[in-house]
Amino acid sequence: MTNPDLTRNRENFCYRHPDRQSFVLCQRCMRTICPECQTQAPVGVICPECMKDMRKAQTPAQRKASRRWGGSIAADGRPLVTYAIIAITAAVSLLQMLPGIGVFITRALQFAPVYLYPDLSGFPFEPWRMLTVLLVHGGFIHLGLNMLALWMLGKVLEPMLGRWRFLALYLISGFGGSVAVACLAPTTATVGASGAIFGLMAALLIIGRHIGGNVTGILVVLGLNFAFGLFVGGISWQAHLGGAIVGAAVAYVFTRTKRRDQRTAQISILVALVLVLIAITAFVPPALISAGVFG
User: Fold this and answer.
1) Residues forming a β-bridge with 21
2) Who contacts 71 (Cβ-Cβ below 8 Å, separation ≥6)?
3) Please, which of 41, 165, 195, 235 could form a disulfide with 243 given CB 3.0 to 4.6 Å?
4) Count of alpha carbons within 13 Å of 19, Cβ hemisphere only?
5) Mean pLDDT value across residues 94-106
């Protein structure tokens, strides 16, 4: 650029190297930085001073995770995926509670295994319900408790894992919860994100143990919540069990494939895990139903 106005404007030059012209801004402080001063973030780039501030703000556990996970911590530390999931889920669940249209939303998004086996049930084949079930809840208290748990777990896990891996963990765990319902309670209908939440709890247990943290408290909370679902009616302990098992499996994959050069292997293993869950859903429940296990 040789335009005199651009040349005279000091904002068009790197704040750390005044002789270097640049038109790239740090995503946090919005100052101009040259290529040498840029650190890639999930969105845009950040300057060295902002990177230093973010590292100072990290907890000891996050710093340890950053070292072990090859720098996978989200650049700004904000759990944006967690916030997005909470916002979308809350919006759908609150619409679900409105008189008149709420019942239609519930019927359209809830999960029941009968929607997976049209030949056996006569219902239409709607497999997407295995994930849309995460968006609807059985009341304001159900919604509030799940979203509170999601916020508490997400603000710890998402910065450690990175946004895409956290999203994958949440969705695959929720899918695993639906698979368990199909296998263990094929005659019931369920709502709620509890399967995914239990997956996050189990993942935090696995990852916390991997980085050397004290996971006793997490184990106690996970055990108490699961036991509560066993002894209180109206709670789908099957979704809790499936979500926890699958969430733990996904977290274990993450701990073993955390290097940058293992990214392809990580994705391949997760795809294989999803395919296994699909195969289980396709063959196990129909076999059990045909054998008369569930009447």
Assistant:
1) 13
2) none
3) 195
4) 0
5) 91
